[in-house]
Amino acid sequence: MARIVDVDVMDIRFPTSRELDGSDAMNPDPDYSAAYVVLRTDTDAEGHGLAFTIGRGNDVQAAAIRALAPHVVGRQVPRDAAALGALSRELVGDSQLRWLGPEKGVVHMAVGAVVNAAWDLAAKLAGRPLWMFLAEMRPEELVGLVDFRYLSDALTRDEALAILRAAEPGRAERTKLLLDKGYPAYTTSPGWLGYSDAKLTHLARSAVADGFDMIKLKVGGDLGDDVRRMRLAREAVGDGVRIAVDANQRWDVADAVSWMSALAEFDPYWIEEPTSPDDVLGHLAIARALRPIRVATGEHVHNRVMFKQLLASGAIDVLQLDAARVGGVNENIAILLLAAKFGVPVCPHAGGVGLCELVQHLAMFDFVAVSGTWENRVIEWVDHLHEHFTDPATVRNGRYTTPTTPGFSAQLRPSSLHHFTYPSGPAWAPTPGHSRAYGPLSEAQHVHKPANGEEGDEGGTA
């Protein structure tokens, strides 16, 4: 049997703060980064995964992944649900590392990166894209991947099994539909807070021309600016296109209610992360005050237990799971089953480095084998950094193209690994006008922000 012989971890950072791509009210100048892991075997097969960060701290995330290597090196290559479930349980169950969470934060994200890399490896060996590899598993195998501890008061094993069995009869038809049509998407690309009004308007119109029927804007910096930007966006896209807004945790409960009440005239589809992602009661109060405006959250919800509370309390209308925040594929299956139990649509968070590539598989698996629907469901699309992946996510006419290459679509190109390794890669060399490389507490944290109406670059990132 093939074995894992090494866990290779790299600190990969992209200087996205130079153009303010990814900027929002809480994170004004992110450098999109990946603590990138490769599971190397004694064959040619490899498994690739990552934890997404926004710059400083990516080295801390990489160190956490390295700390898990003793659980992985020497292990037989996992090829089926039983082995992948056992790996996940062992990684999560390391009591001394778990103490640093438990089951949250840097260590839990490290678990997710390694677990996802193992799924990438297993799916490649099976000759299937990850979504199909999962969707072809028996309900009993899928349920065996889920840790029901702390969940059974809201979702039992038998209930999860019933959900999966109910979706079995239409799997083949939905697989064909997915391959023929792809999966619905919305785009955040027009809405970064650091973009000028002219750039926002141009990109919003371009999104509609490209087939999107939903866009998203960042809000929460200044109410007057947000009112103006929402008016411009609504005028640019018309009444038939949904506009979601995202506050990135900026507000207290009362602020969220008053701020969104001021934006209500522009018919926002949802408000995302209106307050702390840990504040279940706060989300519930906001939801009660603002409906029919939907409340969405999930990209910073750190485990299945928090999602259980958000769902069971009725605090959210849209669940935004993240492929790299929780403990990998296994825990995200638990979250998908919870969402199906409570009838809440899943609209995954994406963007960043590789999040579009990863999360498309989870949404497509959900469509085929869990919820059986894409009604009121969309995957976020941000057109940044896809060119660095060997199997990049693509969107055509407002829909994700269904991936068919075996694996989890997580593998970065060797040239990109070389160019963007921090701090030695050429992308981090000093540039004209700057005395040293972009990086911790450098000029990247003090870039020029375009004034309103000033034309900016229309592209993605370097």
TrEMBL record:
Keyword match Zinc: no
UniProt signal peptide: none
Xref: Gene3D superfamilies: Enolase-like C-terminal domain, Enolase-like, N-terminal domain
Catalytic activity: L-fuconate = 2-dehydro-3-deoxy-L-fuconate + H2O
Residue span(s) of domain Mandelate racemase/muconate lactonizing enzyme C-terminal: 197-293
Entries under PANTHER family matching the protein: ENOLASE SUPERFAMILY, MANDELATE RACEMASE, MITOCHONDRIAL ENOLASE SUPERFAMILY MEMBER 1
Keyword Chaperone annotated: no
Keywords: Lyase, Magnesium, Metal-binding
Organism (species): Allokutzneria oryzae
Recorded superkingdom: Bacteria
Entries under PROSITE patterns matching the protein: MR_MLE_2
Pfam families: MR_MLE_C, MR_MLE_N
InterPro entries hit by this protein: Enolase-like_C_sf, Enolase-like_N, Enolase_C-like, L-fuconate_dehydratase, Mandel_Rmase/mucon_lact_enz_CS, Mandelate_racemase_C, Mandelate_racemase_N_dom, RHMD-like
Protein name from the UniProt record: L-fuconate dehydratase
Region (Disordered): 431-462
Cofactors demanded by this protein: Mg(2+)
EC number, as in UniProt: 4.2.1.68
